Amino acid sequence: MDILKIVLTIIFVIDCIALSAIILLQEGKSAGLGTISGVADTYWGQNKGRSMEGALVKSTKFLAILFILLAVVLNLGVFN
């Protein structure tokens, strides 16, 4: 059981570092005055899910879920 705890802890640390890096790579979500007049609804705004920003958002969600699951598993106390 000690080996499993060490492996999960290493994965948890790698997940924390990756999650921090991906969050810092993302653009700010502050919308300017362009959204009032509808300028933000351009081709790039419609296809944001296929862009690099969309990939960062998806990977952030995945890493955040992994972070929460690993935090819960490591704090259950079954490894003592």
List keywords for this structure.
mainly alpha; single chain; 3 helices; 80 residues; 0% strand
Condensed summary:
The chain has 80 residues and is mostly helical.
Question: Which helices and strands occur, and which strands form pairs?
Answer:
Elements: H1 2-25, H2 43-46, H3 52-74
Global geometry: elongated
- How far is it from the N-terminal to the C-terminal residue, by CA? 9 Å
Uncertain residue segments = none
Query: What structural category arises from helix and sheet content?
Result: mainly alpha
Number of helices: 3
Overview of this protein structure:
With about 80 residues, the chain is mostly helical. It contains three helices and no strands. The chain is elongated and about 45 Å long. The termini are close together.
